[in-house]
Amino acid sequence: MGMTYVQKLLARACGRPAVAVGDVLEPPVNLAMSHENGALVINQFNEIFQGTGRAPNVWDPSRIAIIFDHRVPAESSKTATNQKKIRDFIAKQGITKFHDIRGDVGGICHQILPENGYVRPGAVLVGTDSHTTTHGALGAFAFGIGATEMASVWALGNILNVEVPGTIKVVVNGRFGPGVYAKDLILHLIGKLTAEGANYKVIEFHGEAIKHLSTSGRLVLCNMAVEAGATAGIVPPDAETERYLREEAGVKDALDVFGPDADAVYDRVVEVELGAMGPQIACPHTVDNVKPIAEVAGKRVHQIVVGSCTNGRLDDLEVAAKILKGRHVSADTRMLVFPASWRIYSEALRLGYLADIVSAGAVVCNPGCGPCLGVHQGALADGETALATTNRNFKGRMGNPSAEVYLCSTAVAAASALTGVISDPRGVN
Amino acid sequence: MAKARVVRKFGDDVSTDIIYPGRFMATVLPTETPQYAFVDDAEFNRQLKAKEIPPGSFIVAGGNFGCGSSREQAASCIKGYEITVVARNFARIFLQNSINVGLAMVICPTIDAAEGEELEVENGNVVNRTSGKSFAIEPLPAARQAIIDAGGLIPYARRLLLERPAR
Ligand code: SF4
């Protein structure tokens, strides 16, 4: 019986000829990522060593990545103190994959990992962040874990009790029409699967549209796979994966590129036809409350947000700049743009995208999570509505439980910024 | 587990933003997180902090409880009040976090109970003492149960660490 991608990956990781769905494994971890919540991981890590007579040293400092992104620059002395504690730990342990608050190497964790070549096909990658699923776009089995679980990884180097997940195969046929993007596809899919439809499963992406999709678009799909409850999203690596890793991430060493078996057994196969799909909007307060744009067009929005680990990449800034160039953000709305990394920021600066965006009246924030989780930038007033390219619209997500968040593609966000109401980008040229 | 009341009833998809909003994420210690449990539900949060809700009480929820962020505070803040969460099912990361930090949770796919009703966990069932109905519990896989039996992931991982040669 053939194996799915994640089965083959876990079998290789554990040195077994085959694994079956439901097997419990303890695969070695290739990369363990944390952000500011590393402060809690450090506490739990030290506790594990308590009374053991052993020095609290991480299993392999070269396999740990820490990125400050959730609150940068620090919004409070409490955060600053947590960050200092993490810096001290990093120095003591000799952790090298550290991305501090800096305009050269900083950014959002889920952009920093791919762009620095930290993600490889076939890798087991865990992160103390639910959107760690993002890295499946490069063929890793990547999933979110809690802080105590991470402490155990830092101590042992394995991730315990991984049950080999079943897989949902998603086949995307056709091509993206004008004004339609990976974001629309994934919102549509989440609407179809529901918020718990892929719980405890992997979503494996296939089909003509995926083959032609850039890594940037694949990162969007896998980033949001978790919003259907999936443990991980995976695009089996192909020529585009290799191109990205070589040309954009500077990876030089050999890559282990493999695909699922042709006779792999899937829990379910879901076919999506792109042909007639237009822009999609996730309405408050769940990500699976997805509607075609026509059903919500005209809805007044007070704040537009472009950015995050979902849609803060260079191609997003290009789309936004093209729509905004020579025009103006509507006077009754405000627009915030936060690039996913400083590398992207610098490129967008060089290419003139940021000038077009700022000249139109949008505010460019520093790379980081910012408005996405509503802890230190871009909070909403009671009763206000935001339209965002981020990945969650839960009640309170942008810092105010009395506000509403709609999710969309970058093109929809930029087109709507011009009008102050939810607008179809296909009407803007 | 003794008989106790359902103090809160929720529907499906209760996210970690409801349980422990992102704006309190800089607070990490399990001793400090309980004050922000369900903080945007002002009355429930007040009752919790005023200790009006006895330990052992139940929260009953629908499917996908704890969806969203991986923040462990969402599990530790409820654990601080020793409340048991009974849900149709749990989001993956929240479930694992609960096991790891020792939050009592029960997967009960058919659970039917209203606020104020009394529940008891007994022989693989959740028994609703008010309605007299009984609902089967879905057992956890053995590997996960081992962590609960060890008293959480910290002692469990400590034991594994000691089985390995020192670095
Ligand atoms: S941008 Fe938003 S979703 Fe992405 S890592 Fe930051 S807080 Fe999480």
List the helices and strands and how they pair.
The complex is a heterodimer of chains A (429) and B (167).
Chain A: H1 5-13, E1 24-25, E2 31-34, H2 38-49, E3 64-67, H3 77-93, E4 97-99, H4 109-115, E5 124-127, E6 141-144, H5 147-156, E7 162-163, E8 166-173, H6 182-193, E9 201-206, H7 208-211, H8 215-225, E10 232-234, H9 239-248, E11 268-273, E12 280-282, E13 290-292, E14 303-307, H10 308-311, H11 314-324, E15 334-338, H12 342-350, H13 353-359, E16 363-364, E17 385-388, E18 404-407, H14 410-419
Parallel strand pairs in A: 2-3, 2-5, 3-4, 5-6, 8-9, 8-11, 9-10, 14-15, 14-17, 15-16, 17-18
Antiparallel strand pairs in A: 1-7, 12-13
Helix pairs in contact in A: 2-5, 6-8, 11-13, 11-14
Chain B: E1 4-9, H1 16-19, H2 42-49, E2 58-61, H3 73-79, E3 84-87, H4 92-101, E4 105-107, E5 118-122, E6 125-128, E7 134-136, H5 142-150, H6 153-163
Parallel strand pairs in B: 1-2, 2-3, 3-4
Antiparallel strand pairs in B: 1-5, 5-6, 6-7
The structure holds iron/sulfur cluster.
Iron/sulfur cluster binds at residues 69-70, 108-110, 129, 131, 308-309, 369, 372-373, 390-391 of chain A.
Can you characterise this structure?
The complex is a heterodimer of chains A (429) and B (167). Chain A is α/β, with parallel strands linked by helices. Chain A has 2 domains: 5-272, 2-Layer Sandwich (Aconitase, domain 3); 280-427, Aconitase, domain 3, CATH 3.30.499. Helix content of chain A is 31%, strand content 17%. Chain A contains 14 helices and 18 strands. In chain A, the strands form 5 sheets. A 5-stranded parallel sheet of chain A has the order 4-3-2-5-6, with helices on both faces. A 5-stranded parallel sheet of chain A has the order 16-15-14-17-18. Chain A has a 4-stranded parallel sheet with strand order 10-9-8-11. The longest helix of chain A is centred in the first third of the chain and has 17 residues, at 77-93. Chain A is globular and about 65 Å long. The model of chain A has no long low-confidence stretch (mean pLDDT 97). Chain B is of the alpha/beta class and 167 residues long. Chain B has a single domain (4-139), classed as Aconitase, domain 4 (Alpha-Beta Barrel). In chain B, strand 2 (58-61), helix 3 (73-79) and strand 3 (84-87) form a beta-alpha-beta unit. Chain B is globular and about 55 Å long.
